[in-house]
Design goal:
This protein is mainly α. Among the domains are: about 60 residues; about 70 residues, Orthogonal Bundle (DNA polymerase, domain 1), CATH 1.10.150.320; about 60 residues, DNA polymerase, domain 1 (Orthogonal Bundle). The strands form two sheets. Strands 1-2 form a two-stranded parallel sheet. It is elongated.
């Protein structure tokens, strides 16, 4: 009977309990039906970027999956970027640049591989796009056809070869040599004029476009006679500009010559030339004949 007293509420207490239950029920209903998530303010610029995001992602995927189209090109003039896109390493590109610095050109895919050291797989992938000058592409074919048609007569006729002075040769004289056409004959003459005259038949190797076979034929029919009285270069007093005009000197080498003079005094002989950075060793003796020490 005493415990029953604890479960008896007054009228006011009963009203309070009822009000409490009512408030709890109302709050539960409010939480269930009302969305209390924060309302974000839309930024017009952000909405534009979001609208373009799908298009940008799609374009990026297309660019990633698309294989770049390669157009025919001359491998002698590959740039750093072009070589990188083709898959060449830095060392391979540098070897090609060093070869070109010697004023030499590759004339076939096999020669390109020999100079650069690219792998067979890379060569097979890019060589179909190599585009050499027409005279390079037609040289081997024309030489084989012409040689096969004339070799019998060439070897059967044991005519005495008249050796002419290369410095006195005309364009017509040069064009009589098999493999030397109008373009190559003019190139030989222009090279001679830029030098003032040839001092050695070895200089035929320095004429761009002459194959080893053509150089050999030129050596059979021509020789260096009396060297023309050309003006020698005063190597110890000429300016960088004057030195750079000499065909065997580029601007960078001309600058190295002037720097060597200023630091070491006059250049006295070929041995001093070989001490200069960038001096072509294989042509040093020939170059010395054009200089006035």
């Amino acid at each position: 009977m005493k415990n029953r007293h604890y479960f008896q509420f007054s009228r006011e207490q009963q009203k309070g309990i009822l009000l409490l239950f009512s408030v709890i029920i109302v709050l539960q209903l409010v939480c269930y039906f009302v969305d209390f998530s924060p309302v974000s303010k839309e930024n017009p610029e952000e909405q534009q970027w979001l609208a373009l995001e799908t298009q940008i992602d799609s374009m990026g995927l297309n660019l990633k999956n698309r294989n770049p189209e390669i157009y025919p090109f001359n491998p002698n003039f590959i740039t750093d970027y072009k070589g990188y896109k083709l898959g060449m390493s830095v060392a391979e590109i540098d070897r090609l640049y060093a070869f070109r610095e010697e004023n030499k050109y590759v004339n076939s895919a096999k020669e390109f591989q020999a100079v650069t050291g690219v792998s067979d797989s890379l060569l097979n992938a890019i060589s179909p796009y190599f585009k050499f000058p027409d005279w390079v592409n037609n040289k081997q074919t024309s030489e084989l056809v012409a040689f096969s048609n004339t070799k019998a007569a060439y070897f059967s006729k044991k005519e005495k070869v008249v050796v002419k002075d290369i410095n006195q040769a005309t364009q017509e004289d040069l064009m009589k040599i098999y493999g030397v056409g109008e373009a190559l004959s003019m190139r030989i003459l222009k090279f001679k004029e830029s030098l003032g005259g040839f001092v050695s038949m070895e200089q035929m190797k320095d004429v761009w476009g002459l194959s080893t076979e053509v150089v050999e034929r030129l050596n059979v029919s021509f020789k260096v006679g009396a060297v023309s009285d050309f003006k020698k270069i005063d190597v110890n007093n000429a300016s960088i500009k004057e030195l750079a005009q000499f065909p065997y000197f580029k601007y960078s080498l001309a600058r190295e010559i002037v720097m060597y003079r200023s630091m070491n005094g006059d250049i006295k002989n070929t041995a001093d030339l070989l001490k200069i950075k960038g001096m072509p060793v294989e042509n040093a003796n020939i170059i010395a004949l054009y200089l006035d020490f």
